[in-house]
User: Fold these one by one.
Assistant:
Number 1:
Amino acid sequence: EPEVTQTPSHQVTQMGQEVILRCVPISNHLYFYWYRQILGQKVEFLVSFYNNEISEKSEIFDDQFSVERPDGSNFTLKIRSTKLEDSAMYFCASSGTDQETQYFGPGTRLLVL
Amino acid sequence: AQTVTQSQPEMSVQEAETVTLSCTYDTSESDYYLFWYKQPPSRQMILVIRQEAYKQQNATENRFSVNFQKAAKSFSLKISDSQLGDAAMYFCAYRGNAGNMLTFGGGTRLMVKP
């Protein structure tokens, strides 16, 4: 069964460094998403992406964040200058033409020191 | 803005018994989708079941079923014949018809006792 994959599974970085989190959505899906979950808190929406542009974003998704689909398979989230409060689990998700159901990847645990 | 509330931070159930997890939501929309996701210790979010608001019939997936009460804005998950592998965090989520974002509840940690 096709699934969303994410790399790396864990990343440790220093405050102020740039990180890129990578996702490979399900191959025939057209809609892509990033969510984050700070330890012990709710899962929060960051951004949705369709047809090579952002379709929706939350207040969390400020200028420090960017998303890109550099080729036909990868979907990336870049954090330009990481802060301590960016430490969280980051989930990628994708959905097909019906947009109704989002399938999640296993997550990347980001720790900013 | 839509909100999703899960009032039970923790629940426990005996193996083979039935448990119901509660979820309420607030919305002014008439068309929307509701989901239950399971998050085991591995942290991956796994879709358990979904319900379209326009459908009156409650969704069922094997041992998992929902009780969708649209007027009450309630969407509970019933797990029958609970198994040890059902132990996880369970998140209720809402998706409106206008956008794609999922709004999640705070989660319920389910423990299954052998």
Note: Chain B touches chain A at residues 33, 35, 37, 42-47, 50, 52, 91, 93, 95, 99-107 (CB under 8 Å).
Number 2:
Amino acid sequence: EAGVAQSPRYKIIEKRQSVAFWCNPISGHATLYWYQQILGQGPKLLIQFQNNGVVDDSQLPKDRFSAERLKGVDSTLKIQPAKLEDSAVYLCASSLLGRGGMDYGYTFGSGTRLTVV
Amino acid sequence: DAKTTQPPSMDCAEGRAANLPCNHSTISGNEYVYWYRQIHSQGPQYIIHGLKNNETNEMASLIITEDRKSSTLILPHATLRDTAVYYCIVRGGGSNYKLTFGKGTLLTVNP
């Protein structure tokens, strides 16, 4: 099966500019996640979607970050305006809960590396 | 979700077994132990998970102590490609429970 697709792979912007990242999860995966990974740290969850509804966005800086998953399939994450501390890798993941509650784990994309200068 | 404690780094010789420990003393009865790894410049990769029984798949084995307060991930024959950061995560079952990553263990497999 195809994996989680993310684009772009790399992005360099100046502070105060805006940027958007795109994610296409594995077909049939209802749950989609956006993580932020700063260099040297583990990934931090920003937002979790179940179909097109938000399950958890408690760690999303809502003054500058927004995300949507309008048709319950692909998703976009936007930053406006960007700050220097937003430099990180942004990872998208999706998951499937199978029959009987069998959990097959998350599948992550390769991420988008954002550099804010 | 319960927190986990892992050593920041470990070394292993190629071809030998790599045993990565994880402490999760505050785990509750319905929480699973998950292991992921992240190879440089890639997204994390699911390895294995378990509740209370030992588990094995094509990648690794997971040994969970009887009191469930600690576990060990075993890579039976480590290769250079197993060099990565390994994350031990405790979370509830089902897809609506989020994964919370710590700093993990950097495993370096040496030739």
Note: The mean pLDDT of chain A is 91.
Number 3:
Amino acid sequence: AQSVSQHNHHVILSEAASLELGCNYSYGGTVNLFWYVQYPGQHLQLLLKYFSGDPLVKGIKGFEAEFIKSKFSFNLRKPSVQWSDTAEYFCAVRVDSNYQLIWGAGTKLIIKP
Amino acid sequence: ETGVTQTPRHLVMGMTNKKSLKCEQHLGHNAMYWYKQSAKKPLELMFVYSLEERVENNSVPSRFSPECPNSSHLFLHLHTLQPEDSALYLCASSLDRASTGELFFGEGSRLTVL
């Protein structure tokens, strides 16, 4: 069965540190890839998405993600985090023409001021 | 403002109670979803409605009963729940069923079953 793995449940960083959150999926066919973010007390919202084309995708708030097909990965990055980036981040994958999203378990990111 | 409103935000109920969760979207979308969010687990898709027709039911126990009276409103009726049903229940919408990756979520209804 298809699955999505997020490597770390919790990540703690200081402000201005660089961020990389891992996301790997198990499926060999065509995929659409997504990162969602949930700030404390707020709704889940789409951060960025990949459908096709340039594997380096830029999203809101300075985030980017790179699709590496050979590694089945879609890692989220930000060169310099801010305290306001404290949130939970979810990776999700849609396979082929299946309408259902497969979700990772999320990574809680805490940024120390 | 997300465009998707859920009520109540918090609900505590006993195992013999009957309650309902409500979701309303103001985005003109044609697909609506119920998800269950539990700590340290992936989001679990419960139900999908497209143009008011239920198109997916992911083996959800019958103690959860969805209702979609029109394309803007979605309900989740709850009865004889178990403590393990305590979770955050999220409603989401998308433009259509093909746009399932681009979901707009509500803030959720935090359910506690005693």
Note: Chain B has a mean pLDDT of 92.
Number 4:
Amino acid sequence: GNSVTQMEGPVTLSEEAFLTINCTYTATGYPSLFWYVQYPGEGLQLLLKATKADDKGSNKGFEATYRKETTSFHLEKGSVQVSDSAVYFCALDSSYKLIFGSGTRLLVRP
Amino acid sequence: EPEVTQTPSHQVTQMGQEVILRCVPISNHLYFYWYRQILGQKVEFLVSFYNNEISEKSEIFDDQFSVERPDGSNFTLKIRSTKLEDSAMYFCASGQGDDTGELFFGEGSRLTVL
């Protein structure tokens, strides 16, 4: 079945460091791909999405490119801030529902 | 901006009691969902609902669980006889069922079973 695999956390970075959180997927066809973010004590918020191969989703300085060759959708940010500390979930659309990865906790230190 | 709202934000209950979690999805959405997140773990799909019936459910969604859309605006999750392992954050979500597959989530209802 369809599934999402994320790198395990926590990821701890200093402010202004470069961030990569790896995400790979297994799916039939070409599903839409998403990154959701969960800030402490809050619900899930859509961060960015890509609906077809080679699309790049971007928001708040975060980017991810839909790579069908490597079945990946890695999340990147050039310079993280303390306020980016959160749990990041990669997800794919599967028959009108989302399947989530296990989440990666990011901790950014001043 | 339209949003999904959930109540209560936190409920504490005794094992064996019935619990109803409520959600108001975004008004023009057609698909409704419940997800569960046990503390520190992944977000798990429970059930999807479309056209006034369950369209898909996971293995977690056993006979103790039920969903209902009683009045065209609310979407409820009922747990008939709660167990300790039902303690989790429950997220309601809704979507238009369009090509993007995007879902909009509420802020969650934390259920604590004692």
Note: The first strand of chain A starts at residue 3 and ends at 6.
